[in-house]
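Journal club side-thread
Mid-discussion, someone asked how the predicted structure for our own chain would compare to the paper's figures. Pasting it here so we can look after the session.
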Amino acid sequence: MHEEMRRAFSLLSGKWKLEIMWLLNQRMYRFGELRKAIPGVTQHMLTAQLRELEADGLVSRTVFAEVPPRVEYEITAKARGLGPTMEALTVWWNEYGKTVPVKPGARGRKAKGI
């Protein structure tokens, strides 16, 4: 069972995947909406994470033949099976979240001279 759980965890491992899945569990999003909803994510990283989630069958991508092109993302039926897990995490956070230390928001290297 250890190997199976490792594979399950790897589907959602990634800097932004859980946040993406949490948002998409609530509703369908366009790319720009997702980017605005996730502070700190770059366009490149969001694209990479969405592609991985799509390849794993957890997110579907719909492209509309419009000018400018419109792309919408939503979770698949397979990913909806994670709904109870996300709900359990929400319940856990509501009970214990205030006891979790706040970490500094800055990530990565700081610019020289700062």
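Post-session note: The chain is about 50% helix and 10% strand.
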